[in-house]
Amino acid sequence: MNLIITCSRHFESEATVELRKVLSIFGDEDPKITISEMSGILTADTHCDPFEITRKIKDKVIEEPWSIRYCLRIIPIQEFTNTDLEEILNATGKLVKKIKEDESYRITVEKRNHEISSKLIISKLADKIQNKVSLEKPDWVVLVEIIGNKTGLAVLRDEDVFRLEITKRKLME
Length: 173
What we know:
By secondary structure, this protein is of the alpha+beta class. It contains five helices and nine strands. Helix 3 runs parallel beside helix 4.
């Protein structure tokens, strides 16, 4: 899995069709798209670079605002692991190496359908990262996306995540 997609509840089928069509345009004829047990959440495994996909989808929405209606957020994922504190810490430890010494970060945990403590995850991750924290304007976001017993991880810039509402709002400016 290298993408997490959110959509409005009960529109998972429509979002699946929309995502499959868009990924096909960008060169992936056979992505594996899964509707999760949680309403409004899809996962996808694409052969394309997930960061490139989110950039191309933003460009597509700017060119054709009506082309995306159901996929509300598309989040690129770099690592996928079990929802286990040690596995999350180990996988994230490898990813945070891309944060340079003078750059800031923020840890964001999005937790769905699991009892693991967000505060514990943030605390343990922050202990491993020596950089300056910036909650308002970080250079990097250390993203922990918990979906039940599976967790997607990424170290990305805020603009790497596709947000339909924000992208369309920029068109109005």
